[in-house]
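Researcher: Before we compare anything, I want clean individual predictions. No alignment, no superposition, just each chain on its own. First chain goes here; please echo the sequence and then give the C-alpha cells.
Model: Echoing the first chain and its structure:
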Amino acid sequence: MVLRREREKNSLGIEWGKFYRTVIALVIPMALQNLINVGVTAADVIMLGAVGETALSGASLAGQVQYIMTLFLFGLTSGATVLTAQYWGKGKKEVIEKILGMAVKAAVCVTAVFTVAALVIPEYLLLIFTSDPAVIAEGVKYLRIVAFTYIMIGVTQAYLYIMRSVERVIVATVVYFLSLLCNIVMNSIFIFGLLGCPAMGVSGAALGTLCARILEVVLVAGYARIFNRDIKLRFKYIMHTDRELFRDFMKYALPVVVNEVMWGLGTAANTAILGHMGSAAVAANSVAQIARQLATVVSFGLSSAAAIYLGKTIGEKKLEHARAYAKRFIILSIIMGAAGGTIILAAAPAAIHFLSLTATAKTYLRLMFIVMSYFVVGQAFNTTMVVGVFRSGGDTRFGLILDVSTMWGCSILCGFLAAFVFHFSVPVVYVILMSDEIIKIPITYKRYRSYKWLKDVTREGETAI
C-alpha cells in the first residue's frame, strides 16, 4: 500500500500530507457548523421534552415546514457552489459575485413563499404530518412565530454557503456558534419563565429561535461590510442577472433543488407516515432524527469539503488529481460513517434514560437507534458521493434520479403500504422507511466508477471575466 501511494505521488506530484491537512481544515469548521445547526434543533427538543410530549411533537412537526424550506435553500446554494468552486479555481471573483447575487435573490423569493404559507395556513401545513388536534395546536403556536425567521435564514444561508465554496469557512462557524448560544439562553428564559418572564412553553422556543436568527443577520451583515474584501454582495448583481450565468445556474442548480426537495419531501413523508401511527412514534422519531444529525455532522462536513476541494481542482483543470482525491474521499466517508454509527449505539442508553417519554415511545426509540447505527454508514457514503464528488463536476441530475427511484419508488411506497394496508407495527414500518440509503450504495459506486461526473462546467468567454 505504501509503495502504491508513492507511485501515485510520483506520477501526479500529489503531496498527500498537504491534501489531508487541507481537507481537515475544511471539514472541522463545517462539521462544527453542522453540529451547531443540529444544536439549535436539539435545544428545542431537549427543553420541550422536559415540558411534555405534546409540546415536543408539535414543535418537531412544525419544524418540518422549515426543514422543507431549507432543502430548497440547500439546493439553490449547492447548485450555485457547483459553479463558484470551479470559478474560484480559476480566480474569477467577479463571476462569483454575480452568482452570489443570483443566489441571494432566489433565496429571498423562496423563503417569502414559506413565510406567507406559515402565517396564513399553519393548520393545514401541520395536517400533512399529523391529525392529533393537541399536537397541531402546539405546532401552530410555534409556526406563527418562527415564520418571521425564514427570510433571514434565506439571506444568511445563501451568503455563508457561497463563502464556504471559496474556502471562507470560519465565518459561518463563528456566526452559527454565537447564534446557538443566543438560542439556548433565550430558550431557557422564554420556555421556563426565567428572569421574571412568564413560562411560554412551545411559544418560548419559537421566540428564542427568532432572537438567534436576528443575531445571525447582524453578524453576517457586519462581516460582509467590514471584513470581507474579496467577494462582495453587490446590490447591482442582486437586481441585475447575467443571462449566460443564469442559464448555467439553472442547468446545474435546478436538478439540485428538485433533488433536495424530493429527498426532503421523502424524509417528511417518513415523518408523516409515522405521525399517523401515534404521538409516541412521532416523539421517538424526533429524537432519533436528532441523533442521526449529530452522528453525521462530520460526514456532511466531509461531503461539503469534497465539493469545494474537487470543484476547485477541476476548475484548475487537474482532472487526474480530482480522480485521485475522490478515491480518498470515499475511504474517509466510510470511516466517518462507521464512527457515527458507533456514537449512536453508545448514546442510546443515556438518551432513553433522561428524556421524559412514555414507555411505548422509549421502546420505539431503542429500535430506532439500532436502525440509525447502520443507516448513517450508508448515508455518509452516499452523501459524500452525490453531494460532494458528483456535484463538484456538475453531475447534478444523477442524484435526482437516484433519490426519486430509491426513496419514492421503494422505501416510502413500501413503508406506506406496510403502515396503512398491511398494518405492520411501528418498528417494522421504520425499518422499511430507513432502507433507501442501503439500496443506494451499489448504484452510487457504479456511477463513481464511470467518471461521468468529472467535467469542467465553467465558461471561458466574456461571462468568465
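Researcher: Okay. Second chain, same rules.
Model: Second chain and its structure:
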Amino acid sequence: MYKRLIVTISLLLICIVSSGVKAAQPAKGILYTKPLESVIFSHHAHAGKDVSCATCHSGLFEMEALHVQDQKDFTMDSLYKGKYCGACHNGKKAFASDTQCARCHLGSNAATPQKEAPAYKMSVTLGKRDKDVVFHHEPHLKKANCRSCHNALFQPKEGAAKINMAAHDKPQYCFACHDQRGKNGFTSNDCSRCHKKSPAAPTETIKYGKGAKAVSFKHETHRLSDGCKACHPQTYAYRRTETKIDFNDHINGKSCFTCHAPKGGPAFYDCNRCHKDKPAAKTPAYYPNTLKYKTVMQNVYFHHASHAVFSCNQCHPQPFVVKKGQTKMVMSEMLHGQTCGMCHNGSKAFSARDCARCHKK
C-alpha cells in the first residue's frame, strides 16, 4: 500500500513538472498590452475556412502589428460594442469578449511570445498564363511595410486585384511605386523584371482605323532595343483604344511618325507600306478622288488620280497643307512658281496660264 502511494505521488509530480515545463514554453504570436495587459494573438489560431486576411484587414485592423494600440477607442468597451476583436467575439461567431476573459488575458503568466511565421503568403501570383507576375513580399518589406500597400493599393484578398495594361501608366497597384520615373523602384517600362515567362507585349494584330484604310500593327516587328518604353506611355497609351491617329500626325511627327519619318522631311512618303488597300501609284483611299475649289474666276477641279504618279511628299505638307481649304491660292502666286505653279510652269507640266485646263464651267 505504501509503495503504491509512493508511485502515485511520483507520477503526480512528474505530471505537474511536465505540465509546468509545457506551460513555461512561450506561445507564438503577437503580444498586446492594451486595452489590458498580456493578450497573445496568433494569426494561425484564427485562420480558418471562413476567415481570411480581408476578414480583419478591411476596416477592423491596420496591416501593421500593434498599430491599433495607438487608437484611443481601442478599449474593452469598444470590443463589447462590436468593434475590433468584438466584431467576431460576440458570442455568435466566436466566444464573447465580455464573458470569457481568461481565454485571452493571461495575466502575469504571459511571457513574450515567439515570433510566428507571417500569416501572408511569401509569394503571390498575379495574372494568368504567360503574362503572370510572381510577387514576393520579403524584398518589398525592406523599403516598405504592410500599410504601404494595404488597403490603399491592394485589398488583402488574393485575386481581388485586376491589373490590366491601362493601369501601368497610372499611380495605382504596383505602379504607385514602379512609375515612369523609377523613384521608388525600377520603372514600369522594365517589363522583363516582372514578366519572366515571355514579353508582355500582345501577340495579336492591332488595327488602327476603320474599313479599307485601317493599318495593321504587330509588336513583334517593332521590338526595339529600348523595349516597351520606346513607345509607352509617352507616344502611345497602353490601352489601344485611347490612341487616335489622324492624318496631321503624318506631318507633325506624332504617333507612328516619331520613328517613321525621314530626317528633316515629312513622314508619309511610302503610304502603301502600311495602307494596303491601294497600290502607291493609285489614289490612296484616304484622299477624295476629286477636290472642287471655288476661286475668284471659275471652279477648279483637282484630281488626285491624275497626280498619283508622284509621291505624297511632293506636295504635302509643302506647299499644300493636308487639310482641305487651309492653303490659300491666288493666280498671281501660281504664275510666279508658287503652289500649283511649282509644277505647272510649262516645263514639268502644262502652264498655269493655260486657264481652261483647270477652270471648268
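Researcher: What stands out in the second chain?
Model: The chain is about 15% helix and 10% strand. Additionally, The mean pLDDT is 78.
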